[in-house]
Design a protein that fits this description.
69% helix, mainly alpha, 15 helices
Amino acid sequence: MIPTGQARPLFLLALLFAPVGVIAPKALVLLLFIVALWLLARRWRQDQLRRPFHGTAIILAAVMGAWALLSAIWALDAVAALWTFAKLAGLTVATLIVLDGLKDLDAGDSGLLRRALLAAFALAALLLGLESLFGAPVHQWWFDWRGGPGIFQKTALNRSGTLLMLAAWPCALVLAQQGRRAWALAVIAASLAVIMLGVSSTNQLAAAAAVAGAVLAWWTGPWLQRLLAGLLVVGILTAPVLPATLLAPERLSEHFGGKYYSGLHRLYIWNFAAARIADAPVLGWGLDASRRIPGGDTELPGGGKVMSLHPHNASLQIWLELGSVGAVLWALFLAGLWLHAGRLPRRSERAAATGLLLAGLIVAHLSFGIWQTWWLVALAQSGIIFALALRQGRQSEN
């Protein structure tokens, strides 16, 4: 069976998101733009161009984008700020085009798209599982072939583990919608097992918390997502206070030693970020200022710098660069996502949405820089795939 014309770009996305994510996560950027341009070209040829910009979330994202652009005026490097804004604007528009393309799918495309999602996840889990189990031989070969600097580290698989975790929840939802709950649980169990084989404690924490949150969401009503939305807002707005109080590195240093130094290093980074936030609490230091923040290259006695390119925490990075104005907009945007998840009518949908949101947010607040293009694209595509799974499940019922 061949997908219909309007389904082919989305079929490509469904088929490649998980495998490309675990093999070459940065290539997801190219995948997103290929699919977006393909959809846009189809609309152009059919003279069906329309504006896919609507909804409160889009308005908040637009206002935050405008504030980020304005911050280039006082940014430490205006050119870098403008370039970062241009990348953010481009991927936002591409994401909106792809989301808008979901409206044109026919019910007849549902089966093929579901099978593509499931087959892609199975392949990705198998590839990453084998790599993790046998010491990442393919990644090491690629590292050696390119003549990579230093010694190969298995942390090279961390991004792949994150992508597998994000891909698991839409697949589990597809199976749950078909009444195949045992298989849905098997998908989550497989992703959890592969992630536990890896070396990323962030991925392991995020995966475990996502599973726990999804189980809780299955047995509760929408109040859970409302509660999480409220807790998230409070957490974001108080984020600069915690590194100097409850999470002060001096208070917790005795609990981090040897192989756990990376955790202590995070605390020092957050403490430094909080101190710099206090210097510009309203406007921030400007978009993309984290890597240029004064004093950020100071070496710590245990190794590493007090600011390694970014704070390894999305909320602190937004506070640091866009100030309290940006932090409030960020909090409202994320709270809106949680409230939307709470309005999903079926508990399987709320459980899967809770797992996906928790996984993404935990990694975003412990690991990658929030403006890294591949990471934003990974988050955007996981959201698109989840929306695709929701739509296919509902179409199959009609």
